[in-house]
Every structure is written in structure tokens, then in C-alpha cells.
Amino acid sequence: MNTQANRLKKLIQANQVLANIESLVDLLPQLLRLAQDVTGAEASSILLYNEPKNVLEFAWAMNDVLGDKAMKNLKTGFELPMGQGIAGWVAEKRQALNVTDAQNDDRFSKVADKKSGFRTRCILCTPIIHQDKLLGVVQVLNSVDKDCFGQEDEELLESFGHLAGVALVRSELMIQRLNQQKFETQLEAAARIQKQFNPRQPELEGGNLIWGSSVPAQFVGGDLYDFIPNSDGSWYIYVADVSGKGLPAALIMSALWTRIRAEALNEREPGAMLKAVNAGAYEFMNGEVFATMALLRYVPETGKCEYAMAGHPPPLLISEGKADPIEKTFGLPVGILDDGEFETSEITLEKGQSLIIVSDGVDEARDAEGKFFGEERMEETLRRSGVPQAGETLLKAVADWRGDTPPNDDTTVVEIFRA
Q: I need a labelling partner for 346 at 20 to 30 A (CA). Which of 12, 312, 390, 407 fits?
């Protein structure tokens, strides 16, 4: 009776100890030490179930007779197919098994004994199951104070198996949470890096304005805008929208930014520049992803604005209560074909006028009911906004429309105002 009371006490202590262990590396040896203490065994091992491979893998082994050094071979990738050996039988049947004469049991595999030099007399093995999901098996070998394990030992190890299941799930959840936190930290760092791609607002004379802002739907996004000065006083101004969202789109975005910056050194007219950008971008997009673009070459002094488009919504001209799309030019999105053609057109921005370039995250922004902000509402907002700062007004209107609804796409607005 005293022995049983002592074992029950150890089982309760095991519950308390396991509740405070979060690391799987720390958990496994503790599980085995406690299992041996509870059942009075010479050795023990725990095998975890690898569901994709449908095998049991030796995760840890402990032996008070041979020592941990002799058990090292069992901890290095040793696998046991389901149904093979005592442990495989227990895992497949999902029921405990008490083997009183291991050497003469057909289900017993002698592989582990050969690897370790240990001779197994008897085995008590129980599955580790949590919410009907098999996690592994725990087994104890060779009773210290009797010939084989008894009914009491079976009940104790089964109870211990339940504790082990909870502990393993808790450890796995902790690992997932830590990995999630690590991933979020990496995304936050990526977001800070991506912000460095956003250009500084140019300081222009006479009240002229070039302004832009981009809000990613996730930590990082695939929208891109830039202001690149040319030697003749003109500026390349563009908005690009890479297909997709999140980290994959952000990686393509950074490569595209680099390509555009390199081609800008040649100071071509917009259509020719888009053609060169497309040829380079196709090498890493390969038709699998694409980006729409609106590229302008703007001269603040005269208001002259050459432009070309690659499948992007046309910019809107804001003037005296009007907001009208400019004429769209031909051009497929960048990255679809290796040799695309892009038209160049031209307008002149008069004094007091603004040109607004947006990504489709503006008109496709949704409210709580799933309704789009829409082109009509976008144009109406710009007609009422006045210039300059029409772009900022539009972004605020989109945010108000969305409310607490998470963004469904990256949102980018660029404004060119001629004073």
C-alpha cells in the first residue's frame, strides 16, 4: 500500500513538473525519468509519431543500467514502421500492451537491443493520445523490483501517457507561438526595410508638389511608387502594382524597384523605358507574376507630362471641380511577355491642376458589407477635394469607407500638382 501511495504521489508530482516545462528538448528526458520513477523501471524510451511518414521515430531513450551514452544510437534518426515491434503494435492498435517475456514474443523487435547492448526482459508500452490524435508511445523496460510489470504499473503508465499527451501538445503550441512571434518580428523588420523604398517628397519651387503614400494590406506589400530626378530637371514618377500580396509580392517589388532605378539612368521616354524595364523584369517574373505600371516623365516648370502605361488604371486629371481619367495608352502588364510594346502619350498639366495616380487597392477597397469603394466614389471624392492635397483626401476617404475592415489590397496614391 505504501508503494502504491508513493507511486501515486510521484504521478501527481509528474503532473506538476510537466506543467512547467515548455521546451520539447527539456520535456522528453523529464518524461522518461518520471515514467521510470512511476513504474519502477530500469529503462524507458519515447517514440513520437511522424504522421506524414507514418512511422514512429525514437525521440529519447534512457537507461539506468547502461547509461545515456549507450543509448545515443537510438536518438539519431532510428525509425520504426507502424505495426512493427511492440511500440509499432501499440501505436497501430492504440492500446497499451504488457509483455512479460519480450525475447519470446513475436512482436518484439531486437533492433534496439542490438544497437544499445541492453537485454529486454519485459516491456510495458502505452500510446500517447490527445483528443483522439496519436502523438507517440512511451515504454518502460525491465521492472527493477519484480520479474515483470503488473496491473498497477499498467494503470499508472496509462495515466502517465495522458499527462504526456497534454505536455507534448502544450510544448508544440508553445513552439508554434514562439515561431509565430519570430515570424512577426521578421515581418516587422521587412516592413521597416520596405518603407526605405518609398521616396522622400521632392522640394520643388513655386508651390509645385509631388507627393505619394502607400499602405500595404499586410506587413509588406507589392505596391511601389517612386520619384526619380533626371538631368534635364524632369522627374520620372510611377506607380506599380505587383500581382499578389504579402511577402512574395514584396520580394518581386524590391527586384522591380532595382530594375526601374537602373533603367532610369538612360533617361528614355516612358514607352521605351517601360519596354526596357519589362525585358529585364521578365527574367525574374517569367510570366508567372506580373505588375501593372503607370510611368510618367514630368517637367515641373512647363507642366509637360509624357506617360506610358502597362495595364494600369489611367491617372486622373483634377481641375476646377472635375476629375477625369486621361487617355489610356496601350501596354500589357510588365512581366507577361519578354518583348512587350508600350505607347507614349503626352499631356500638359496647367497651373492649378493635379494628376492623381492610384493602385487598384483604392477603388477596390471594401467596407464591412463587402461593397467596393468604386471608381465613381473615387472620382466624386477627388472632384470635391480641391487641389493640392487631393491625394491625402482620397486616402482618408478610403480609410473611412473601410472602417475596421482589414484591407483587402495594398493602397497607393500619388499626386502631382502644378502651382
A: 390
